[in-house]
């Protein structure tokens, strides 16, 4: 990409550079004044009036190089808030009673309903289906089908074809 300034005649480029440098110099002067007033205000002295800043000449004959900013004064540490009283200990709720072993469902019972729905969907489709297709038909998530599908494959109820995302499941 070419520099658009090079398309201008030499005298116009020089004029544009002078105007730009004068503007930059004015911006630097203004920033120096603002920073100086802020430092003065922070140190507790009376701030310099804005009229003094306006009394400076508008443009300087030659641009000066940017000076290094003055070192920042050391910040005073903020006072620490008063310590809060320690929270009172809260009584823990009593542990819930553990259900008897006979009331806990077996892993096969946990997925019984979803397994029946998978078989029904595969029979209705009459063709092998991917997990994504089963999710759409059953209104489920992939994580809901992973374990039941593995159990059904291990039990020989389903047949699997393909690998990874191309895997399809059908009735064995």
What does the model show?
The protein is mainly alpha-helical and 172 residues long. Among the domains are: 9-54, no CATH class; 107-171, Orthogonal Bundle (Arc Repressor Mutant, subunit A), CATH 1.10.10. The protein is built from six helices and two strands; from the N terminus they run H-H-H-H-H-H-E-E. It has helices at residues 10-43, 50-54, 107-110, 112-125, 131-138, 142-155; strands spanning 158-161, 168-171. Strands 1-2 form a two-stranded antiparallel ribbon.
Task: Supply database-style keywords.
172 residues; mainly alpha; Arc Repressor Mutant, subunit A; 6 helices
Which geometry do the CA atoms define?
elongated
Number of helices: 6
State the end-to-end distance.
66 Å
- The overall strand count is 2
Order of helices and strands: HHHHHHEE
A few lines on this structure:
With 172 residues, the protein is mostly helical. It is built from six helices and two strands, in the order ααααααββ.
